[in-house]
Amino acid sequence: MTQHIFVTVVTPTAVAANNRGEGDGSTLSTLQKITKGNDQYTTVSADAIRWAYREYLQSIKPTEVNRTFDPEADKYNIKDERYKAEDYIDDDIFGYMDAKKGADNKDATTKRRGILEVSRAISLDPYWGDIIFGSKGGEKGKTSIHNTEAHCTSYQYTLALTPSSLKKPDRAKLILDAIPMIKHVGGNHARFLYEFRPESIVIRVTQDSSPWIMNCFERVGESVGCPRLVRLVDVKDIPASELIVAGEIADTPYGKQLEELGVSVCRGIKEAIAMAQGLLKAEV
């Protein structure tokens, strides 16, 4: 049976302003939003999250990634435009697509679907329209004053990975290593800082091809809870033996309930990741 890894992350609560201006001449930097029920929630794209994972891999394995970002030139460099998933970690994990035409104008597209799947991150809290004003230094003009939509919230997103679909399945461990290490998610130019590390995390190592743990976190008072996850384990739709839960959720009543149901509950995020890597070691 094929082994799958699913990970749902909820970040710490902080002020987010993850998007750039609408265009040249605009003084408004907007947040992306979606509507759920009667409320709007802010969101961060999967591409922005994937960028952070690429940045981490470049930082630890610079000679083993094909696409590297040069912050001085503000551009990407490709080492080998033929792409080689066997040789390059990023070609293997994130996939690629080269839509060039051949010499005879025939379709010469080469592509590989990304093995790592990432959901869009959604805020835990509704957005009520908070705006921050700023001003550039020096001589003032019509665009000196700028407005930035900001949201004090946590974000939740999910990763999915099937290690055996990788050319080198052991590379799945690199993604687990990256989860608490990513930093530059989103934009707001070079001024913005928002932690996208896990405050709490749920890892599922399973032969089930469906995650079941997406959007399992929700705001409960000023804290974060996971009542739906507790229910799924309680009714045995998710075997307790397949889950590792960690972070601040471990110190809540939900963490205690999950532990009583037989789930592995850790207080430390990195301890949980090491435990998940141990499970992969036995089966990848």
SSE blueprint and pairings:
Elements: E1 4-10, E2 14-16, E3 28-29, E4 32-36, E5 39-44, H1 46-60, E6 67-70, E7 75-78, H2 89-94, E8 96-98, E9 110-112, E10 117-118, E11 121-126, E12 131-135, E13 145-149, E14 151-153, E15 155-161, H3 172-178, E16 200-206, E17 218-220, E18 223-225, H4 227-234, E19 243-247, H5 253-260, E20 264-266, H6 269-283
Parallel strand pairs: 3-13, 19-20
Antiparallel strand pairs: 1-15, 1-16, 2-14, 4-5, 5-11, 6-7, 8-9, 10-15, 11-15, 12-13, 16-19, 17-18
Helix pairs in contact: 3-6
Could you explain the architecture of this structure?
This protein is an alpha+beta fold. The protein has one domain (4-279). It has 6 helices and 20 strands. It has helices at residues 46-60, 89-94, 172-178, 227-234, 253-260, 269-283; strands at residues 4-10, 14-16, 28-29, 32-36, 39-44, 67-70, 75-78, 96-98, 110-112, 117-118, 121-126, 131-135, 145-149, 151-153, 155-161, 200-206, 218-220, 223-225, 243-247, 264-266. Helix 3 (172-178) packs antiparallel against helix 6. The longest helix is centred in the first third of the chain and has 15 residues, at 46-60. It comes from Chroogloeocystis siderophila 5.2 s.c.1. Keywords: Antiviral defense.
Briefly characterize the structure.
The protein is an alpha+beta fold. Helix content is 21%, strand content 30%. Strand 17 and strand 18 form a beta hairpin.
- Give the amount of beta strand, in percent: 25-35%
- Main beta sheet: strand number and arrangement? 9 strands, mixed
Mean pLDDT value: 89
Q: Domain count, please report it.
A: 1
Structural class of the secondary structure composition? alpha+beta
H/E element string? EEEEEHEEHEEEEEEEEHEEEHEHEH
Characterize the overall form.
Answer: globular
Q: What is the assembly state of the chains in this entry?
A: single chain
Keywords: Antiviral defense
Pfam family, one: DevR
InterPro entries: Cas7/Cst2/DevR_bac, Cas7/Cst2/DevR_sub_I-B/Tneap, CRISPR-assoc_Cas7/Cst2/DevR
GO biological process, one term: defense response to virus
